[in-house]
Amino acid sequence: MLNKLFKNIGPGTLVAAAFIGPGTVTVCTLAGVQYGFTLLWAMLVSIVATIVLQEMAARLGIVSGKGLAETVRSEIRSPLFKGLAVGLILAAILIGNAAYQAGNISGGVLGLQTIFPDTYFSIASVKINYLNLIIGGIAFVLLYLGNYKLIERSLVALVILMSISFVVTAVLTSPSILGIIKGMFTPRIPENGLWMVLGLVGTTVVPYNLFLHASLVKEKWNDVSDLKAARKDTYISIIFGGVVSMAIIICATAIEGEEVKNASDLAMGLAPLYGDFAVYFLSFGLFAAGITSAITAPLAAAYVAKGCFGWKSNLKSLKFRMVWTSILLVGLIISSMGWKPIEIIKFAQVANALLLPVIACFLLWIVNKSSLLGTYKNNLIQNVMGVIIVVAAIGLGLKGLFKVFFL
Length: 407
What we know:
Elements: H1 2-8, H2 11-19, H3 22-35, H4 40-64, H5 68-75, H6 79-113, E1 120-123, E2 126-129, H7 130-145, H8 148-172, H9 177-185, H10 194-204, H11 207-220, H12 227-253, H13 263-274, H14 276-309, H15 318-335, H16 341-366, H17 370-373, H18 380-406
Antiparallel strand pairs: 1-2
Helix pairs in contact: 2-8, 2-11, 2-12, 2-14, 3-10, 3-12, 4-9, 4-10, 4-11, 4-12, 4-16, 5-6, 5-14, 6-7, 6-14, 6-15, 6-16, 7-14, 7-15, 8-12, 8-14, 11-14, 13-14, 14-15, 16-18
């Protein structure tokens, strides 16, 4: 039965593992603490948007046999525009994923430090947190082995751990079922809550996941007849991820009035109310969130570089390994520099806000090309939903720019 479960699980689980990172955990925590169940509807909308875009990416990968970056490179005819598009994608993903990676490692460390507070050692008067090295080392080993099935199954196990951790903690808080339903289906933006809504969308609809998904479906499936299985995998995995994100909001709602700034504070805040079990569950959940994203972010960057440069490489090729190793090292160095994890995570979300509209526009353009997808190109409903998401993504990006340069 367990073998059958793993056999039917596909890249959708990796997508869920990637978007439920420390950034999502932190933003969901703040949303629950500050607004209770009020913004559960925003997470529901985010999940729908993620499903729409990820289905497009999966369909592109299966029908065309190409990744998103590779397709953009081959479909743009003008050398000038091709160079600009490839350069923009490459720079944005590499820089954005390095920022994500730092936040992923820092977030994973934040979870473990709740249980293991004294984790520093000194080398030549420089303090180093050995938890950073442990998380970076685990990610390095799994990626270096270059076995897709091993990576997939490892992430599935971590996602299950993470899901159990957050859902069990949410159940322990004995939430109001009526309040949850009302929060999910009554769209309302509270005073000063717009930024939080944008944050929930920005942490769920992750740009690099679109590249990752389009590339990974080719590792799992290789025929158009597999499209139904790919869609099922996408829908189930992302909905499951959405349930986990909502569970985090529900957990945070239980400690209204407490001084909570991140998920680590949430774990400590739950301790007097629900005992050490809540702390352990939540801390291991945050650790799992950090390490799953720490594996997928470098992997996505490597696939983007492969598509942009037209490499005929695989998971074990030197070029592929050089890209993900660089992202992993940069993230490890930044996370070890003593900056506050919450600041690193916030920076990663700004990078996401700026990158999302660009990638969403490229994807929507590509999946409407009959020459590439034939009868599998977008239909009217898919286009309408896609345009709405792109417009929202552009608004999110503009808000992100305004916040960076004017606030």
